[in-house]
Amino acid sequence: MTTFVRACELGELDEDTPRRVELDGTPVSVVRTGGEVYAIHDICSHANVSLSEGEVEDCQIECWLHGSAFDLRTGKPSGLPATRPVPVYPVKIEGGSVFVDVHASLTQES
Ligand code: FES
């Protein structure tokens, strides 16, 4: 069973500009980049910092506090100080709206 919920309109997303939303109590950063839309848990795995306040580049979102960047497809950090991935979630676009399933993490642990 999937539990997609509406996050925002596709037209509300500017390229490489994360948008923070709260879905079923989970903070999520929705990112449009390179023609795709991704959804990643909005809190860094290193400390309680909002990833949506960071920069997006090369399909990664960078934590502004210490600089770890997380892959928007896998949730994996590219380098220290973060060592653990951040959950990433399935996205679907329907009728011009973006839907995210925060109950089905796509994160790869290793
Ligand atoms: S809080 Fe994100 S890398 Fe330290």
Automatic annotation (TrEMBL):
Keywords: 2Fe-2S, Dioxygenase, Iron, Iron-sulfur, Metal-binding, Oxidoreductase. It holds the Pfam family Rieske. InterPro entries: Rieske_2Fe-2S, Rieske_2Fe-2S_sf. SUPFAM superfamilies: ISP domain. Its EC number is 1.14.12.19. GO terms for molecular function: 2 iron, 2 sulfur cluster binding; 3-phenylpropionate dioxygenase activity; metal ion binding; monooxygenase activity. Residues 5-100 form the Rieske domain. It comes from the Bacteria. This is Bifunctional 3-phenylpropionate/cinnamic acid dioxygenase ferredoxin subunit. It comes from Streptomyces doudnae.
